[in-house]
Design brief:
The protein has 137 residues and is mainly beta. It has no helices and eleven strands. Strands 1, 3, 4, 6, 9 and 11 form a six-stranded antiparallel β-sheet that branches. It is globular and about 45 Å long. The chain starts with a strand and ends with a strand.
Length: 137
Amino acid sequence: MVQNRTIATTTVPLTTPGFVLSGEWISQLGYGSGPNVPRIRTNVSGGSISFPLTSASAFYIVGSVNFNHGLFDVTMTPSLNVGPQQYNGSSSWVGLDTILYLATGLNRSQTYQIEMKNDSPDMALDLSSIVVLDTPP
């Protein structure tokens, strides 16, 4: 049976133990005239979030995409035989609560260190949660 837990990343400072923000981050709630979608944002190239992950078979990072979002990368240590990967958060349309990154095939007895970093100057990186999936024995 798959179990999941959601770790909110919606306020600065983050209160989850082990979660660290680097660079300038702000809390955001509204999205134009649309719905309230709590999240954190950086527009700084090199701004990052890092966190440890244990008891996980998979995880995904949830955030938003839009025309003013740019490139970001995710690094996992130890890796799953994959180096840092770069992704593009740019979209012609606003996408709220969108899966930005997904990793599967994790060893649930291993502790991983995850870092997600904004690679685009003056472009946004928004995060709202980390969802951890586990398949206990």
